[in-house]
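1st attempt posting a full record on here, be nice pls
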Amino acid sequence: MRGNYTRFGFDAMSKEFDTLREEVNARIQKQQEITNFAIAIGAGFVALSKLFIDGTQPWASSNLEMLFPALSIIFSSFALMTLDHEVNIANIYQYFDTELGPRMQRLIGEIKEPIWQWNQKRATWQNHSGVTNGFYYVMSWAKYTITLLPSIGLDIKYWQVYKFEGSAWERGLFIASVALIAIVLFTAAFVALQYQSMGKLNGSRSLR
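the predicted structure (as tokens):
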């Protein structure tokens, strides 16, 4: 009976592990799709600008510049969507580290060597304090430069042209776009702390 229970528990937790891994992979794929979509929109906007803004149609330039805050909100929203997947991936890591992994270890306690040690090593190498940690954060931020930098750049350009001289709804849209950038930055800091804490977890492991 004990053997059957152990086997059933092992199969159930192995299936849960596989399910979590599939979710992580799916969320990583969704992040890439969001980045690709942001690139497509950015390229389309640049092409549209070159098509209509040639110095002979000032009305086109003005009308496009009025759209900058709205475009900034779109790019910031892409960044938040990417961060939503990122924080869910971090939560999966933490669940695996603190609950699923230890349960599996207890179930097969007769095996003396600890199992699933990759995340412990990865967290030690990447999620730590020190100069070299900066390189990992720069690389991890690469996918956000596609969305966050255009968002910031569009607001700066709009401010240079209009400041607060636009209509009330344009000013409101600009304020909203700036506020959303701040939300993205605070959210990114929160997600970074989630990963930073993984380097301090006992028995930290990874699905990647």
